[in-house]
Description:
Blueprint: E1 3-6, E2 13-16, E3 24-26, E4 33-35, E5 81-82, E6 89-90, H1 111-121, E7 155-156, E8 163-164, E9 176-177, E10 182-183, E11 191-196, H2 201-225, H3 230-252, E12 255-262, E13 268-276, E14 279-280, E15 284-286, E16 293-299, H4 304-316, H5 318-330, E17 333-339, E18 345-352, H6 355-370
Antiparallel strand pairs: 1-2, 3-4, 5-6, 7-8, 9-10, 11-12, 12-13, 13-14, 13-15, 16-17, 17-18
Amino acid sequence: MSNPIVCNGCGGRLAVPDDYARNKMQCPDCGVMCVIPPRPAAKKKAPPPPPAAEEPRFEDDEPAAPTTFAEAPAPSRKGLVMCRKCGELVRPPARKPGRRGKCPVCGAVWPELVARAKTAAAAPIPPPPDEFAGATIDEDPDSGNPYGTADTGARRCPGCTEQLAPGVAVCVRCGFDLRAGRKVVKEYQRWDQSWDCGMSLQLRVILFLVCQAAALTAFALGFAVLNNPIREMIATFVFTWMTYTMMTGFLLGTYEHIHLKRHKSGKIDLTKTWRIGFVRFPSHEIDLRSRFGVICGADEYAKLWDWLMLFVLFGSGIVPAVIFWYFAIHKTKYFVGLCGEHESLEEKIYRGWDREQMLEIQQTLRDALKA
Length: 371
């Protein structure tokens, strides 16, 4: 049988005879000498084993019977017990008075003998007392009390079926009044308080009118003293007066108004209203249910915005600048705020200069949160 190889030059297949002894062969198509890889030696098959010679058998021969061995008789287990510690089957020794039995293999004390000794030494348990000893049984089914039970006075609430103690008149769970036969509706004391941050609206209006009167008086004196043309003086007066009026109106008419009201049912309404230049804006309602506390304090330092505002007001007039400096920078400002869950300030609801008013608002809000 020939072994084919592949030519390295043309890729053709060359058949190598089995008896070819050289290690190279020339391709007949392209003439390239191709290397013949070493061929494995042919495995020689082992000769089959010779058949075993069978013993001659005769017709008169009988099949041999299988060999059997007689089993030894099992030892008798009568009277043997198993030790709980070593697991051996042993014969318990004879009991001796005053001694405990032991395993003859491991020497462990047998719990049966110990338990019996302890049980024998223990005092007898008295029978439980009879709870119904001396009780009389009412055999009359029409007596209304066949089991002889006594009335303890306890009863259940008709509103929530809560077990009530004897003598209770009002259920603390649902508020049902047993005497009136209806649920008690809790009524709260009504509150209706309001605060203006800083000065009241009436005082602010009075100060604004005083500033207007002072400005008109100053302009009248200017008309009387100065000899400028009337048109120029009127134009100067109108421009200056309008600027002065807007500044004083903004300073005196810008503040916050707080209104706290509690209804008869216990609902609390807290609203904050802004007025800018005496013009009222829509109210903002504050939810007290999401607040956990009230804090107050003082702001003793003016911010950068306050100084910039003072510089701007000096350009419009000395009176607005002095008013702003006195109330916004010179005086100590107090505040009241509502806290969140971690006692952090979340919202300021009051800013003013009256310390007594700050304490009053703080105490009122604390009472509202407790309610």
